[in-house]
TrEMBL record, chains A, B:
Mg(2+) binds at residues 26, 28, 247. The active site is at residues 26, 28. Signal peptide: none annotated. This is Putative phosphoglycolate/pyridoxal phosphate phosphatase family. The keyword Metal-binding applies. It comes from Ornithodoros turicata. NCBIfam families: HAD-SF-IIA, PGP_euk. Divalent metal ions. Mg(2+) is the most effective. Substrate binds at residue 221. InterPro entries: HAD-like_sf, HAD-SF_hydro_IIA, HAD_sf, PGP_euk. It comes from the Eukaryota. One of its GO terms (cellular component) is cytoplasm.
Amino acid sequence: LGPCRLLTKEIFRTNLLESLSYVLTDCDGVLWADNAAIPGSPEALAGFRKLGKKVMYVTNNSTKSRIEYMEKCKKLHFQADMDEFFSTSYCTALYLKKLNFEGNIYLVGSHGLRQELTDAGFNCSPIGPDPVPDDWMNWAVNTMKLDPQVKAVVVGFDAHFNLTKMLRAASYLANKDCLFVGTNTDEQFPCGNKSIIIPGTGCIVQAVATAASRKPIIVGKPEPFMPDCIKYRWPDLDPAKTIMIGDRSNTDILMGKRAGMKTLLVGSGCDSLDAVRRNVAENRLDMVPDFFVPKLGDVVEMMPFT
Amino acid sequence: LGPCRLLTKEIFRTNLLESLSYVLTDCDGVLWADNAAIPGSPEALAGFRKLGKKVMYVTNNSTKSRIEYMEKCKKLHFQADMDEFFSTSYCTALYLKKLNFEGNIYLVGSHGLRQELTDAGFNCSPIGPDPVPDDWMNWAVNTMKLDPQVKAVVVGFDAHFNLTKMLRAASYLANKDCLFVGTNTDEQFPCGNKSIIIPGTGCIVQAVATAASRKPIIVGKPEPFMPDCIKYRWPDLDPAKTIMIGDRSNTDILMGKRAGMKTLLVGSGCDSLDAVRRNVAENRLDMVPDFFVPKLGDVVEMMPFT
């Protein structure tokens, strides 16, 4: 396991807990799978709070707005305040604001992303189905209407992603001045069933990037923009006193390591100990977590008050 | 332009024509754009035939069967015989036969590819729309039916590509023994309008590969399987006496160069002289054609009998 240690009660109490002020946690695969809480995760976060740690949610999932995340948290028994949420839906809006972006947005995405973008004052194309016409190539060349005011293509997760959306996105991106933003590159969503693979936003971003022959700017983990947002909102955050918890080596752990945080990989989502071993073997040490635990709930019984 | 020369009547007659026995030509962007012949291309191929050259069609487009290609050729006034067609639809069937593949195929593709696969005796999933259920993640985990006999996922161009198809393909590919074949990786289809980008099969293959975290075997250009098929059918073909004509540097020209053929890039499709200059500047000489001509029809007036 190289520099990664299996988290035990002793390690947790002697090497970790005391030094922590901030607990940043990924959501899908750590706190929940689809619409069900992963057993023990609500109690684990409640425990950290009881021990005086500041908890924050850091998710690459762009499908929900912060308000929708708060509703989901409450339903699944996680405490949640608005300023604890750093999702790619929200951070994409912050990114465009930071650029002083002007112009319309062609959006490949879901309701929550559109909500955050419009709440921030941006004009966005509608979401939802955009059917493929029968004689689609002829339609594309001769009939398709493109909005000349579109100056950015934003790509997040979109359950209605199809050829028509690829066509529109790539055609906007043929203009090299059109900004190309992807919320994140996660290849899969964790779903709690290893024989079913749920394609993630990365598949959609890759498809559009291939069509456009361009590389997008990525807002989400492991890129630095999300930790920058957190530090901007919480200037007291000291990376040395912060742990990043996640289920993916190439997003959660890599972001945490790059930001100088401690890192904890949980086995309840995408990556297992096999991924740790593979990254150790291939010397990708920036993706090897400091600690591993099968699931976040396992820390509950390590906590001093239990 | 580095080692690439603009084709002139003098070069055509003194350096090229005499040495040729075989003329291999790409289709989309060279012979036609969507359903219209590119002006002069029918006359150019007819001219090569009149000069005693053997003409063959070598296309990465997997949407049509050889029979459908013959119909299209006849409609657009290109002469065509069945054994002159090497499409990825046909060659994918040949590839699976060469492997003595047994098992069912999950197909992301179009009618022509399915036709060639079933004509070769393979069991294929149906093509066409496969709608995304409302509660799709729950459906995927709890309701989606996967065929346990599927031992290969074949991905070609599919106008109905969507999340459901990605889900099924990636879930089959979670089994490492399941074969993963992509017809080709072309990023775009040429459509004769530089401000409209038509996504190619490469976008679909990339999306599935990302979801599955696997690399496919690619049947089409620039990989060696298609020239191998041609040599198998036409053992007399001598690469030194063959020219490969195409509109893409990273498929047509690269395949021709790797196979030791002469190469001609035409500017009527995806790549222009800019692409040649870029490849020269970046020292990718295996993508730099021997000759360039704005469109294939321009060779007609270079031919000795005109």
